[in-house]
Amino acid sequence: MHPFARFSSTKRNFLDKPKNRRAWLFVALLLPILLLLFFTSAPKHYYSFRRLQQRFRAPLNGQCKYGTVYVYDLPPIFNKKLLDNFQDLDLSNDGFGPKATDLEGVIPKDLTPAWYSTDKLAGEVMFHSRISNYKCRTYDPDSATAFYIPCYAGLASRKHLNGNFSASERDSQFESLLGWLTNQPSWKKSKGADHFIILGRISSDFRRDSEEKSGSSFLLMPPMSQTLRLSIERSPWDRLDIGMPYPTGFHPKSNSEVEKWLKFVRTRNRSKLFAFVGGKSKKIEDEDFRDLLLDQCKGFDSCKVVESEAASPAILEAYLDSNFCLQPRGDEGFGYTSRSTFDCMLAGSIPVFFWKRSIHGQYEWFLRDDPERFSVFVEEKQVRNGSSIRKVLEGYGEEEIQMMRERVSNLIPRFLYYAVAAAAGGGKEKDIRDAFEITVEGVLRRIKEASISQQ
Hints:
- 40% of the residues lie in helices and 9% in strands.
- By secondary structure, the protein is α/β, with parallel strands linked by helices.
- It folds into two domains: 49-248 and 419-453, no CATH class; 268-412, Glycogen Phosphorylase B (Rossmann fold), CATH 3.40.50.
- The strands form two sheets. It has a six-stranded parallel beta sheet.
- Helix 9 runs antiparallel to helix 16.
């Protein structure tokens, strides 16, 4: 007799006995109940089937060359609840803001769905939303290479930047955050050396070194002494600071949309030599310099002037119609960088800078380390001493302008933030290399290399 047949016969004899049948029936009824109690009483973080599936997805897909990222589940007061505090700030659509509905006739119709009214300070929300679906995210802190702190620090400090607030009021939320973080096992292992945070404001807003100044002292607090921080403007004296691009309004869902946009800006007929976006400045640092630029532009027919309060279609159209665009320091005069730099380059226009710090050493991961190849630098002091910007720009020949514009357009994909759905890993766009991908890969690479060097 075949051994399997003998086993089958034994099994039937066992089940034929009433006592054994009742035992099997009892086990069959009890097992589902025990499993249900186990999974409902256990912490959801560890036993959710969806989380388990996501937790092991990243290491299995072979795309995580530099490791994986663990995302802290912070108390909502440090991120989600902050969104309720600002009625004047629309951060819907994963931070992109509302759809742009006023660009018809300015850009190709089939690209308008990819445009949003994105706030320049929306980076924290956009990044948090995107990394939640990142292909190299892990739910296992013991296997993570880097740890992301999803605190909306820019939003937390927004109401305290101006007004009569004490130093303790401006720092209290960040002290609470660090109190929570420093009690986490992952933080204790490295003292924050393998952690990073996204700052939606310029980093100087978090470096208050005296009680009389505005902003917070978040980055100067001792627990932050080893943590990487990525912001829209970095300090050139801090090795832990990394500059990342300001958000623009263009958030494509596919590489094909990017290619369509590149073709549009590359073939655009530009009737103006240069453009300047910005009216008479307020009482801020270097307040008169923008006025000098405005005066130079208004006296020249081949310069397009747009008041800074104008609607975004007028600004975009000015950049699309111009070969060059003037970029004075800071949108509000306090920093050295500007959202308009990326709006200008997105339109295929060549930025003209007046402070080295506005571009040099700021966005090397994204714009490379050779800004002279895609931009023009005119010393601010030269303009104050009467130098003509017009004459400087007229010194560039048509062939040279075309070459620089081509370099600008080649950089566009590297500072865009794609729509979340396109980059979640489930679609056809497997080769996306936008600003988010470059940021996370750069952080992982830097932390991994630092870890290896210390071994």
